[in-house]
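User: Predict the full complex structure for these chains.
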Amino acid sequence: MSAVSVQKGAAGSFGWVRSAETARVLGTLVLTLGVIAWAGGDLFRQDLALLGATYALLALGMYLPFNLAGALSLAYSAYVAIGGYAVGLVATKTGWPLPVAYLLGAIASAVLAVALGFATRRLSGFYLAAVTLLFGMAFQSFLLDAKDLTGGALGIGSIRPLTFFGTELDRRTFIALTLLVVWITAVAVDRIRRSPFGVALQSSRDVPAAVEAAGIGVPALRLTVLGAGAAIASVGGGLFTTANQTIGPDTFTLHLVMLAIFMPLLGGQGSAWGAVLGAVLVVELTFNLQIFERSGSLIFGVAVLAVLLIAPRGILGYAGQGARLLRGLLTRTGGTR
Amino acid sequence: MSAQLWVSVVQIGCFFGLVALGYYLVLEGADFFNFALGPFAMFSGLTASWLMAEQGWPLGVAAVLGIAIAAVLAVVTEIAIVRPVDARSSGGELPSLIAVVAVLFAVEQLAGTLFGRQLMPGRSWLPGVSLDLGFVTVDGQTIALVVCTLVSFTAVWVWTRKSKYGRILRAVGSNREAARTLGMPVGRVRLVAFALAGLVVGLAGQLFSAKAGVSFQSGFGWALSGFLALVIGGTGSVWAPLAGGLLLALAQTFVPYYLGSASLDYAVLAVAILFFALRPNGLFVRKVRV
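Assistant: Here is the predicted structure of the two-chain assembly.
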C-alpha cells in the first residue's frame, strides 16, 4: 500500500494525468469515436447508432431520478416525445434555428416533469410507477387527439435538417455530433453522481430522514432531478427526430420506457456508463438481432431476469470487480518483488 | 343510451374485479403489487386459444391447462424471482418492483415467441346459451363470466374467514411483523397467496379472451386496469376489488360515450390522482372497532 501512495505523491501536480477519472473520460471518448467510425457511411449502422444514442440519453435521463434518487417515474416516453415534437413544430411552424427547439423542448419537459412530480410528491414505489405510467398513456392519447398541434396519427413530417452557419449538416456528421452529445452527457451525469449533490441524492433514496436532518429538502431535490432528467430525455427525442426528419405518436411509446428501466440494470447501476452500455445492448438485442431472429426481445427479457438474480450490479459492476481483483493481484506481486 | 352497454359494463367490471382480486390476495399476503398478474392472465388465455385453434384441443382441457399454467407462473415468480430479490434488498420496494416489471416483460415476450404475435380469438364457454331479459340479451359468455366471478369472490371470502391459511393471510395482511413474531408461516402463506392469485387471474384471462380476443401484449393493459380497480375499491374487504372493477368499467364505458375516445385516458389519470390525493385507501376502508 505504501508504494502506491508514494507513487501518487511523486506524480505531483500532474496527478490528474494518471487518475482513474482521466482514464475513464478519455477511454469513453475513444470508444465514442470508435462508434462514430464504425457507423461511418453505412445507413443501417447509422440507424443503429442513432437509436442507441437516443436510448442512451433516455436511460441517462432516467438514471438521475430513478437509479440515484429512487423515484421510478414512467412518464419518460412523454418527455422524449416532447423533445421530438418541439423539433417538429419549430421546423414546420417557425423559421427559428433548430437548436432553439432542443432548448424549448427541454424546458417544456422539465416544467411538465416538475409539475407531475409535484402532483405525485406523496407517492412512491408501485403507486408512483402506476400513476406516471397513466400519465404517459394520457399523453399518448393527447398526441393522437390534438390534431391541430401534433398532426394526429400522421404526426409531423418533412422536418428540415439542421444547418450550421448556413450549410446543411449531412446525416453522418449529425449522428457523430449526437454520439458526442451522449458522451458529454454521460460524463456530466457520472460527475453529478460523485459530486456532493449526487451523494445527497443517493442518501435521500436510502435514508431520507438523515438528508432532511442535514438541512437538505428531499422533495425539492427530487423535483430538481426529475426536471433535469426530463430535459436530458427530451434532447434525445429532439436529436432522433432531427435525424429522421419525422415524428409521430408511435415513435416513442410506453414500451420504450419499459426498456429504459432495464438499461442501467443490465449495464450496471454503479456508474452512468452502465446506462449507456445497457442502451447499446438493448439496441443490439431488440433491434439488430430481432431482424434475424424473432426472439431477440425474449433473450433480452431473460437476460434482465438473469442479471437481476445473479449479477445485481450489472455488467460494469462485475467488470469493475474483476479489474479491482486484477489490480490487487498485480500490486501484491509488485510489493513482494 | 343502449341497455346493451350495461351488459358490457358488467362484463368488463367482473373481469377487472377478478384481476383486482388477484392483486388483493398478493397484496394481503406479501405487501406487494404483482403487476405480472396481467400477463399471467394473458398467458392463460393465449395458451388455451392457441391449443384450441392450432392443436385442436377440446375447450375444457385447454382451459384447465391454461389456468394451471397461470398458477404455475405465479408460483415460479414468487420462488425464483421475487423472494430472492426481496431477501437481498431487505425491504426496499424498488428492486422487487423492477423484478416484477422484468417478469412482465419476459412473460409477454415468451408468449409472443411461443404462440405468435397476432391477436387470437377466444372461444365462448356457453356458445349456445343466451338469456333474454326483455330489455337486453345476455350471451352465454357473459353469464359464465358473471357466475365465475361471483363463485371466485365467494370462495375467497369464505376461505379468508373459515380456513386456517385464509385467516393467517388476513393476519399477515394487517400486521406482518406481528404475524411473524407469533410464529405464523408467513413465507408459506405468501406462496399460497401467489398461487391463488395466479388461479384467479388465469380464470379471468380465459373468460375475457372470448370477448375481445387476446394477444401477447394484452396483459399490460389488463395489469393496469386491475391495479386501478384495486386503487378505487381499496383493500378494506374481499368484495372491494369487485366494486372497484365495476366502477372502473362504468367509467370506461360511459366516459368515451359522452366525451369522445381520447377523454378516457385523461379521465383515468384524473381518477387515479384524485383517489391518491383524497382517498388513498380506496372506497372501502377497514373499520376497527375499539
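The mean pLDDT of chain B is 85.
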